[in-house]
Amino acid sequence: MSVSLYVALVLAVGVERLAELVVSKRNAAWAFARGGRETGFGHYPVMVVLHTALLVGAVVEVLVADRPFHPTLGWSMLVVVLACQALRWWCIRTLGHQWNTRVIVVPGAGRVTGGPYRFFSHPNYVAVVVEGVALPLVHTAWVTAVVFTVANAALLTVRLRAEERALAGLDERVDAP
């Protein structure tokens, strides 16, 4: 894969992220109109910066460090990246209006337990974690993969705690008489 094709791939992932933000904004409006409450918003700007840095870092590393394309690694990681996109959109479709890039819960909505949520509590984060390794490795940008993975682990620790607290409160309201 040429560098220009890799840059096009990363740009396509960036466009996909922008599409997610459009869906997220629409879903946030839906949630707020139904009494939704946002929690854990302090980490959100950090998440935006980190995910943007993944895309920029992967391209910059390939260009500046002249990272080569290794076909066996590159093509297999491309398949993984595509699988991550499929999983991500399966999550978005399964959650419907409840999916968001922010932590917003709607009282009485309840937890979604279908689709990929039958198998994992947080399948979207499985996609994020795996893609954070796979996308840079399509063109051997291993420094970006390592830095993103470490930073993302710290961020996800905060994010998952915020989500679990919000969902626990949602479950309590649903179960209340």
UniProtKB/TrEMBL annotation:
<feature type="transmembrane region" description="Helical">
    <location>
        <begin position="43"/>
        <end position="65"/>
    </location>
</feature>
<dbReference type="GO" id="GO:0032259">
    <property type="term" value="P:methylation"/>
</dbReference>
<keyword id="KW-1133">Transmembrane helix</keyword>
<protein>
    <submittedName>
        <fullName>Isoprenylcysteine carboxyl methyltransferase family protein</fullName>
    </submittedName>
</protein>
<keyword id="KW-0808">Transferase</keyword>
<dbReference type="GO" id="GO:0004671">
    <property type="term" value="F:protein C-terminal S-isoprenylcysteine carboxyl O-methyltransferase activity"/>
</dbReference>
<keyword id="KW-0472">Membrane</keyword>
<keyword id="KW-0812">Transmembrane</keyword>
<dbReference type="Pfam" id="PF04140">
    <property type="entry name" value="ICMT"/>
</dbReference>
<keyword id="KW-0489">Methyltransferase</keyword>
<dbReference type="InterPro" id="IPR007269">
    <property type="entry name" value="ICMT_MeTrfase"/>
</dbReference>
<feature type="transmembrane region" description="Helical">
    <location>
        <begin position="72"/>
        <end position="90"/>
    </location>
</feature>
<dbReference type="GO" id="GO:0016020">
    <property type="term" value="C:membrane"/>
</dbReference>
